[in-house]
Amino acid sequence: MPQTRLFRTSSFRLAAIYLALFTVSVLILGAVVYAVVHTQIATEIDQDIEGESAALTKEYFAHGLGRLEALIATRGRSFAYGLVDAGGKLTAGELAAPRGAAGWTYLREPEGDEPIGEGAIDVRALVTRLDDGGALVVADEWRGARGPTHALLSAFAWALAATLVLGTIGGVLLSSQALRRIEAMRGAAQAIVAGDWRRRIPETGADDELDHLARTFNLMFDRIESLLEAHKAVGAAVAHDLRRPLTRMAQRLETQLGREATRPDTAAALEAAIADIHAVLATFNAILRIGQIESGARRAGFREVDLAAVARDIVEAFQPAAEEEGKSLTADLDEALPLSGDRELLTQMVANVVDNALRHTPSGTHIVVASARRDGGGRLTVSDDGPGAPGAERQRIFERFFRLDAARSKPGDGLGLSVVAAIAELHGMACAAEDNAPGLRIVFDLQN
Amino acid sequence: MKVLIIEDDEDGAAFLANGIAERGHEADVACNGRDGLMMATGPQRYDVVIVDRLLPELDGLSLVKAMRAAGSAIPALFLTSLSGIDARVEGLEAGGDDYLVKPFAFTELMARVTALARRPTLGAEPTVLIVGDLEMDLIRRTVKRGGQAIDLQPREFQLLEFLMRSEGRVVTRSMLLEKVWSFHFDPQTNIVETHISRLRAKVDRGQATPLIHTLRGAGYTLRAPN
User: What ipTM, to 2 d.p.?
Assistant: First the structure.
């Protein structure tokens, strides 16, 4: 299935929304944890500095400046120190306090011998003024606090990346699975629309909401199918049951006709009545025939047939009649159209279309029956340059009993092209009525 | 001609029997398959059997199969309801000689029954058909009338051949559609009429006595003048 389709599924969209929400929560969580940890570490550093500073000040008051200088020189590297005299000159340690500074401040610590510049970092410092006018500076490197917070940040960055990757993968998996099942549903529904009433939507057995939906749809299709069957059965039953009395009626009239042969008026009336009954019976037969074709029973006897050869026979058979009516009927059937089918039905299919073209066009019309190759199969067309059919009506000419307004006065039962549609469908052919500009073109597309 | 009608619809059977009798032939009726088989294989010699496909006791197909198994070669014509669209093929495979879908015009049935009754017995196939001064050479595919060669299209040749083989008998439109074009349906367009008129133009035009005759409401016949 195409990638773009996958990303356009509702489940993928849902997954994307969830992913965004997760990302935001991870970010908020990270920010909160970072703030808490950062504050905690800063507080601890401040307390450490305060303690160290207090201890040193205490030593200073007890033992004097010399003791303080000595202590600073020997203290470990956990703090940074600075001792300035009243003139602001650094006398011990490495951190000079700015003049007049007291209390908490941030200082820039020089790195080694480098002058304070880009590489310098801020350090948290407590400046305590001494009673000789000097000041003691105790600082802790922020560097110490940066370690844990950095680790924390990178951990969260990884977590975020993992969330994004897993979320996307999950979304794709989720939506492709949902898409596959939706596709299966769509395929089944399309097959049903195309006339395969036996098709049903597959159920996975997971008994989830999609299965429930599939089951409901299948029940709906069952219902539609049974209604449709009932609808067809009514027509067929009426046609079937009325045939016998009508046949008898025609037989009685025929018997009577034999006796009335000496009275021309009565004989003519009887003949007309018999002809009408036969027309009704022919319509009934066509209805029953469509039903039989649609039942698909004839598929069992399918053989290799060349539809182009069938069409050639039809053209040959209809040509004299066409010429008699001042129309031309020509074949352009060099391209063979092999298919598996029922020759008799295919013959009737082409004959009905040619019949239709002959009956509904004026003298001088050109009718062409042609075969051609196209992508994915062959094509048979029957085109004429007659009056054609208006767009809206053209789409309906395959419907049962449908007749163009212009054709209502002409003989015919409106079933000829319905028979054509039923035969085409039985053979898996798509048939369509197109505008031949001018005229009508009936197209049969064979599937390979 | 003696015809046996095996049909369970009594009205229909009576109609057929009356019609056949009115045309000067004899007809017996059997109302179920078992009786029908007994009569068909009995001492009475029939020229044609008309068998309905759907019969009580023994269906039409089995009946004709049993007839053939018993060695009877009487031509059989099936009457079928359309509800079996493959009925024709089945019927022919079972040993039937022709079929007719109900409802049908009586003239249609009569023409077919007559054709079956006069079917030549198997033997030497003629290589030349002759009707009056019309002569058809089936080997060389040539046609002459009064010694004059007539040029025919293949389909016209087939049409004329069928008419000549049915000399003197009524040939209906649907018989021609079936035998000449293999069309088992009746197109609205008059394809039989136009082909016949073309054939007529070639065979009968300029001749003192026409051979091809139209029988209104029934069909065509080809016969030599008496």
Answer: 0.81
Domain presence at residue A202: no
Which tokens belong to B222?
């080809």
CATH of domain B128-222: 1.10.10.10
For chain A, list residues whose CB is within 8 angstroms of any CB belonging to chain B.
Answer: 240, 243-244, 246-248, 250-252, 254-255, 258, 271, 274, 278, 281-282, 285, 288-289, 292-293, 297-298, 301, 313, 316-318, 320-321, 323-324, 344, 347-348, 351-352, 354-355, 358-359, 411-412, 416
Lowest mean pLDDT among A3-17, A182-196, A421-435, B149-163: A3-17
pLDDT tens digits along A76-90: 667 778 888 877 777
Q: Give the Å distances, CA to CA, from A340 to A333, A378, A425, A438.
A: 18, 13, 13, 33
Of the residues A158, A191, A224, which one is the last residue of a structural domain? A191
Q: How many CB pairs under 8 A join A and B?
A: 93
If pLDDT is split at 50, 70 and 90, which confidence band does A336 have?
very high
Contact state of A288 with B101 under an 8 Å Cβ cutoff: no
Report which of A324, A321, A429, A422 is spatially closest to residue A374, judged by C-alpha positions.
Answer: A429
> Which of A236-250, A322-336, B175-189 is the most confident on average?
A322-336
Kindly list the residues of chain B whose beta carbon comes within 8 Å of any beta carbon in chain A: 9, 11-12, 15, 18-19, 22, 81-83, 85-86, 89, 101-103, 105-106, 155, 181-191, 193-195, 197-198, 217
**Final residue in a domain of this structure, among A132, A159, A191:** A191
Total domains, chain A: 3
Best residue in A344, A353, A369 to probe B by mutation, most B CBs within 10 Å? A344
Contact across the interface for B191 and A348, Cβ inside 8 Å: no
Q: A147 and A282 share a domain?
A: no
pLDDT class of A347 with cuts at 50, 70, 90: very high
Residue A156: CATH number of its domain: 3.30.450
Which chain B residue is nearest to residue A254, measuring alpha carbons? B106
SS3 content of chain B, % helix, strand, coil (to 5): 35, 20, 40
Burial A202-220 (b: 16+ CB within 10 A, else e): ebeeeeeebbeebeebbee
B148: distance to nearest CA of chain A, Å?
Answer: 24
* pTM to 2 decimal places: 0.65
**A274 chain-B contacts, CB cut-off 8 A:** 105
Answer with the residue of higher pLDDT: B87 or B216. Answer: B216
Q: How do the domains of chain B map onto residue ranges?
A: 2-117, 128-222
What number does CATH give the domain B2-117?
3.40.50.2300
Q: Is the pLDDT of residue A116 over 70?
A: no
Helix then strand count (H, E) for chain A reads 10, 12
Q: Which domain holds residue A104?
A: 1-108+121-191
* pLDDT, position B143: 93
Q: How far apart are CA B25 and CA A113, in angstroms?
A: 140
- Alpha-carbon separation of residue A6 from A179, A180, B144, B224 (angstroms): 7, 10, 77, 81
